[in-house]
């Protein structure tokens, strides 16, 4: 029986995308010597805020999402980021494919708020994969294996650098700071929001 293992080996920004896009390089390894003819794969990506430390500046930025830090034991929760579906062409032994993920700077999206609040380090990601693979005449189920206890969800982890997130929007055509119409305004005395649909003022 075919044995499939999944891992992300790298991530990069797609510089020529119309919208801000991250490319995750997904490595798939077949460990039983079988020829894989195709894989229909579904991927869910989650963020795991509990799996990193936060500076005092980050804590203040995350108040809106998680409340006061002394309550984070109860409020710090896994965040759903996005879904992706793709067809993997045939291979033997191992292959690496691109998983493109479209990003948003809209602060109404919880995942975007969380990413923008981070100053450095890594974003702890959890990839959950499921689908079906073909050995020629038949299809079988495929899923990733998660290191740890059996009751934890199947999947694998990857740490994505915060520094890459901060440059992804200027890297995409038409997505520089002048296109950010839903930014948070930060003032030396207080913090307010820019009105929806308006351009950031000099205070932003």
Strand residue content: 35-45%
Report how far the terminal alpha carbons are from each other. 57 Å
**Integer average pLDDT:** 76
Specify the number of helices.
5
Instruction: Give the uncertain stretches in residue-range form.
Output: 145-153, 174-204
For the largest beta-sheet, the strand count, sense and barrel status come to: 5 strands, antiparallel
Secondary-structure-based class equals alpha+beta
How much helical structure, as a percent, in the residues?
10-25%
* Name of the top-level CATH class of the largest domain: Mainly Beta
What is the CATH third-level topology name of the largest domain?
A: Immunoglobulin-like
Q: What's the architecture of the largest domain in CATH terms? A: Sandwich
Instruction: List SSEs in N-to-C order.
Output: EEEHHHEEHEEEHEE
Q: How many individual β-strands?
A: 10
- Mind telling me the C-alpha Rg? 20 Å
The overall number of domains is: 2
Short synopsis of the structure:
This protein is an alpha+beta fold and 204 residues long. It is 16% helix and 42% strand.
């Amino acid at each position: 029986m075919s044995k499939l293992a999944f891992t992300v080996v790298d991530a990069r920004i797609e510089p020529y995308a119309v919208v801000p896009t991250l490319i995750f390089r997904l490595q798939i390894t077949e460990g039983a010597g079988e020829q894989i003819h195709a894989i229909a794969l579904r991927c869910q990506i989650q963020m795991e805020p509990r799996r990193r430390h936060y500076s005092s500046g980050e804590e203040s930025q995350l108040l809106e999402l998680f409340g006061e830090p002394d309550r984070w034991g109860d409020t710090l929760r896994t965040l759903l980021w996005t879904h992706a579906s793709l067809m993997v062409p045939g291979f033997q032994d191992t292959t690496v494919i691109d998983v493109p993920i479209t990003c948003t700077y809209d602060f109404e999206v919880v995942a975007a708020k969380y990413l923008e609040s981070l100053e450095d380090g890594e974003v702890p990601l959890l990839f959950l994969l499921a689908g079906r693979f073909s050995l020629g005449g038949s299809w079988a189920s495929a899923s990733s294996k998660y290191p740890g206890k059996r009751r934890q969800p199947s999947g694998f982890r990857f740490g994505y650098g915060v520094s890459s997130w901060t440059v992804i929007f200027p890297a995409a055509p038409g997505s520089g700071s002048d296109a950010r119409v839903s930014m948070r305004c930060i003032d030396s005395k207080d913090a307010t929001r820019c009105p929806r649909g308006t351009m950031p003022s000099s205070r932003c």
